[in-house]
Protein backbone atom coordinates (compact mmCIF):
# COMPACT_ATOMS: atom_id res chain seq x y z
CA UNK A 1 0.00 0.00 0.00
CA UNK A 2 2.80 2.40 0.85
CA UNK A 3 4.47 1.53 -2.45
CA UNK A 4 1.26 2.53 -4.23
CA UNK A 5 1.11 5.84 -2.35
CA UNK A 6 4.77 6.48 -3.18
CA UNK A 7 4.04 5.74 -6.83
CA UNK A 8 1.05 8.08 -7.06
CA UNK A 9 3.04 10.81 -5.30
CA UNK A 10 5.62 10.92 -8.09
CA UNK A 11 5.56 14.16 -10.05
CA UNK A 12 4.72 12.40 -13.32
CA UNK A 13 1.78 10.56 -11.70
CA UNK A 14 0.13 13.43 -9.86
CA UNK A 15 -1.64 14.83 -12.98
CA UNK A 16 -3.57 11.53 -13.17
CA UNK A 17 -5.34 12.43 -9.93
CA UNK A 18 -6.93 15.44 -11.60
CA UNK A 19 -8.40 13.35 -14.38
CA UNK A 20 -11.81 12.15 -13.21
CA UNK A 21 -11.62 8.78 -14.91
CA UNK A 22 -8.04 8.09 -13.85
CA UNK A 23 -8.61 9.26 -10.28
CA UNK A 24 -11.54 6.87 -9.88
CA UNK A 25 -9.34 3.99 -11.02
CA UNK A 26 -6.62 5.03 -8.56
CA UNK A 27 -9.11 5.26 -5.69
CA UNK A 28 -10.49 1.86 -6.64
CA UNK A 29 -7.02 0.36 -6.31
CA UNK A 30 -6.45 2.09 -2.96
CA UNK A 31 -9.70 0.61 -1.63
CA UNK A 32 -8.66 -2.80 -2.94
CA UNK A 33 -5.27 -2.56 -1.24
CA UNK A 34 -6.85 -1.39 1.99
CA UNK A 35 -9.31 -4.29 1.87
CA UNK A 36 -6.44 -6.76 1.38
CA UNK A 37 -4.45 -5.16 4.19
CA UNK A 38 -7.32 -5.44 6.66
CA UNK A 39 -7.98 -9.07 5.72
CA UNK A 40 -4.28 -9.90 6.06
CA UNK A 41 -4.09 -8.17 9.45
CA UNK A 42 -6.89 -10.33 10.84
CA UNK A 43 -5.41 -13.45 9.24
CA UNK A 44 -2.06 -12.78 10.93
CA UNK A 45 -3.77 -12.42 14.31
CA UNK A 46 -5.67 -15.70 13.88
CA UNK A 47 -2.70 -17.67 12.55
CA UNK A 48 -0.40 -16.41 15.29
CA UNK A 49 -2.88 -17.33 18.01
CA UNK A 50 -3.38 -20.81 16.54
CA UNK A 51 0.34 -21.52 16.20
CA UNK A 52 1.16 -20.35 19.72
CA UNK A 53 -1.71 -22.38 21.20
CA UNK A 54 -0.62 -25.48 19.29
CA UNK A 55 3.10 -25.26 19.97
CA UNK A 56 3.16 -23.90 23.53
CA UNK A 57 -0.12 -25.14 25.02
CA UNK A 58 1.54 -26.82 28.03
CA UNK A 59 4.33 -24.32 28.64
CA UNK A 60 4.75 -21.18 30.71
CA UNK A 61 5.19 -19.20 27.52
CA UNK A 62 1.48 -19.45 26.69
CA UNK A 63 0.69 -17.50 29.87
CA UNK A 64 3.25 -14.83 29.01
CA UNK A 65 1.90 -14.65 25.47
CA UNK A 66 -1.66 -14.09 26.73
CA UNK A 67 -0.38 -11.44 29.15
CA UNK A 68 1.43 -9.60 26.36
CA UNK A 69 -1.67 -9.72 24.14
CA UNK A 70 -3.75 -8.30 26.98
CA UNK A 71 -1.27 -5.53 27.80
CA UNK A 72 -0.60 -4.56 24.21
CA UNK A 73 -4.01 -4.94 22.57
CA UNK A 74 -6.92 -5.27 25.01
CA UNK A 75 -7.32 -1.51 25.46
CA UNK A 76 -5.51 -0.52 22.28
CA UNK A 77 -7.78 1.88 20.38
CA UNK A 78 -5.88 1.51 17.12
CA UNK A 79 -5.91 -2.30 16.99
CA UNK A 80 -9.58 -2.24 18.00
CA UNK A 81 -10.33 0.11 15.14
CA UNK A 82 -8.39 -2.04 12.65
CA UNK A 83 -10.39 -5.10 13.74
CA UNK A 84 -13.73 -3.30 13.42
CA UNK A 85 -12.72 -1.71 10.12
CA UNK A 86 -11.90 -5.18 8.81
CA UNK A 87 -15.43 -6.33 9.70
CA UNK A 88 -16.85 -3.17 8.14
CA UNK A 89 -14.96 -3.71 4.87
CA UNK A 90 -15.57 -7.46 4.60
CA UNK A 91 -19.16 -7.64 5.80
CA UNK A 92 -20.76 -4.23 5.30
CA UNK A 93 -19.22 -1.94 2.70
CA UNK A 94 -15.93 -0.86 1.23
CA UNK A 95 -14.83 2.36 2.95
CA UNK A 96 -15.19 5.50 0.87
CA UNK A 97 -11.78 7.00 0.18
CA UNK A 98 -10.61 10.33 -1.10
CA UNK A 99 -7.32 12.10 -1.59
CA UNK A 100 -5.69 15.47 -1.27
CA UNK A 101 -2.38 16.73 -2.54
CA UNK A 102 0.01 18.30 -0.06
CA UNK A 103 2.89 20.43 -1.28
CA UNK A 104 5.89 20.40 1.01
CA UNK A 105 8.92 22.67 1.04
CA UNK A 106 12.25 21.02 1.74
CA UNK A 107 14.20 23.42 4.01
CA UNK A 108 17.52 21.99 2.83
CA UNK A 109 17.03 21.93 -0.95
CA UNK A 110 14.31 24.62 -1.00
CA UNK A 111 12.46 22.47 -3.48
CA UNK A 112 8.75 21.76 -3.45
CA UNK A 113 7.58 18.17 -3.43
CA UNK A 114 4.08 16.78 -3.64
CA UNK A 115 2.71 14.06 -1.38
CA UNK A 116 -0.70 12.49 -1.92
CA UNK A 117 -2.69 11.73 1.21
CA UNK A 118 -5.35 9.07 0.73
CA UNK A 119 -7.98 9.04 3.44
CA UNK A 120 -11.14 7.30 4.63
CA UNK A 121 -14.19 9.49 5.15
CA UNK A 122 -15.24 9.20 8.77
CA UNK A 123 -18.85 10.17 8.04
CA UNK A 124 -19.34 7.07 5.87
CA UNK A 125 -17.96 4.84 8.62
CA UNK A 126 -20.44 6.29 11.11
CA UNK A 127 -23.32 4.92 9.05
CA UNK A 128 -22.41 1.47 10.36
CA UNK A 129 -23.96 0.63 13.73
CA UNK A 130 -21.67 -2.24 14.74
CA UNK A 131 -18.63 -0.33 15.96
CA UNK A 132 -17.42 -1.86 19.22
CA UNK A 133 -13.66 -2.06 19.78
CA UNK A 134 -13.12 0.84 17.41
CA UNK A 135 -15.51 3.28 19.10
CA UNK A 136 -12.83 5.12 21.07
CA UNK A 137 -10.67 5.59 18.00
CA UNK A 138 -13.64 6.91 16.06
CA UNK A 139 -14.45 9.45 18.78
CA UNK A 140 -11.08 11.16 18.51
CA UNK A 141 -10.48 10.65 14.77
CA UNK A 142 -10.75 13.60 12.43
CA UNK A 143 -13.16 13.83 9.54
CA UNK A 144 -10.43 12.30 7.37
CA UNK A 145 -8.55 9.22 8.53
CA UNK A 146 -5.23 9.13 6.69
CA UNK A 147 -4.62 5.62 5.38
CA UNK A 148 -0.82 5.85 5.33
CA UNK A 149 -0.66 7.01 8.95
CA UNK A 150 -3.10 4.30 9.96
CA UNK A 151 -1.03 1.59 8.26
CA UNK A 152 2.28 2.91 9.62
CA UNK A 153 1.10 3.10 13.23
CA UNK A 154 -0.45 -0.37 13.20
CA UNK A 155 2.56 -1.85 11.41
CA UNK A 156 4.93 -0.58 14.11
CA UNK A 157 2.81 -2.15 16.85
CA UNK A 158 2.63 -5.53 15.12
CA UNK A 159 6.33 -5.61 14.22
CA UNK A 160 7.24 -4.86 17.83
CA UNK A 161 4.92 -7.60 19.08
CA UNK A 162 6.26 -10.21 16.67
CA UNK A 163 9.83 -9.24 17.53
CA UNK A 164 8.96 -10.12 21.12
CA UNK A 165 7.36 -13.40 20.00
CA UNK A 166 10.43 -14.47 18.02
CA UNK A 167 12.84 -13.48 20.78
CA UNK A 168 11.05 -15.31 23.61
CA UNK A 169 11.04 -18.82 22.05
CA UNK A 170 14.77 -18.43 21.42
CA UNK A 171 15.23 -18.26 25.19
CA UNK A 172 12.85 -21.17 25.78
CA UNK A 173 14.60 -23.34 23.19
CA UNK A 174 18.14 -22.15 23.93
CA UNK A 175 19.43 -25.67 24.68
CA UNK A 176 17.73 -27.14 21.61
CA UNK A 177 19.07 -24.39 19.37
CA UNK A 178 22.57 -24.88 20.74
CA UNK A 179 22.31 -28.61 20.01
CA UNK A 180 21.06 -27.84 16.49
CA UNK A 181 23.97 -25.46 15.84
CA UNK A 182 26.42 -28.08 17.12
CA UNK A 183 24.92 -30.76 14.87
CA UNK A 184 25.05 -28.37 11.92
CA UNK A 185 28.75 -27.73 12.48
CA UNK A 186 29.45 -31.46 12.82
CA UNK A 187 27.60 -32.17 9.58
CA UNK A 188 29.53 -29.49 7.74
CA UNK A 189 32.86 -30.90 8.97
CA UNK A 190 31.79 -34.41 7.96
CA UNK A 191 30.78 -33.28 4.48
CA UNK A 192 34.01 -31.37 4.11
CA UNK A 193 36.06 -34.47 4.95
CA UNK A 194 33.96 -36.51 2.54
CA UNK A 195 34.60 -33.99 -0.24
CA UNK A 196 38.34 -34.07 0.53
CA UNK A 197 38.41 -37.84 0.27
CA UNK A 198 36.60 -37.73 -3.08
CA UNK A 199 39.06 -35.14 -4.41
CA UNK A 200 41.97 -37.27 -3.26
CA UNK A 201 40.52 -40.37 -4.92
CA UNK A 202 40.50 -38.61 -8.29
CA UNK A 203 44.34 -38.69 -8.29
CA UNK A 204 44.56 -42.49 -8.06
Question: Can you lay out the helices and strands and say which pair or pack?
Answer:
Layout: H1 2-8, H2 20-55, H3 61-73, H4 77-91, E1 97-105, E2 112-121, H5 122-125, H6 135-140, E3 144-146, H7 147-172, H8 174-201
Antiparallel strand pairs: 1-2, 2-3
Helix pairs in contact: 2-4, 3-7
Could you give a short account of the major beta sheet? 3 strands, antiparallel
Q: Average pLDDT, to the nearest integer?
A: 85
C-alpha Rg (nearest Å): 25 Å
Strand segment tally: 3
Identify the overall geometry.
extended
Distance between the termini: 62 Å
User: How many domains comprise the coordinates?
Assistant: 2
Q: What is the subunit arrangement here?
A: single chain
Strand content: 5-15%
How many separate helices? 8
- Placed side by side, the strands forming the largest sheet appear as 1-2-3
Structural class: mainly alpha
Residue stretches low in confidence (pLDDT < 50, at least 5 long) are none
Q: In sequence order, what are the helices and strands, one letter per element?
A: HHHHEEHHEHH
Helical residues, percent: 55-70%
Commentary on this structure:
By secondary structure, the chain is mainly alpha-helical. The chain has eight helices and three strands. It folds into two domains: 2-172, no CATH class; 176-204. Strands 1-2-3 form a three-stranded antiparallel β-sheet. The radius of gyration is 25 Å and the shape is extended. The termini are far apart. The mean pLDDT is 85.
Summary of the model, kept short:
The chain has about 200 residues and is mainly α. About 65% of the residues lie in helices and about 10% in strands.
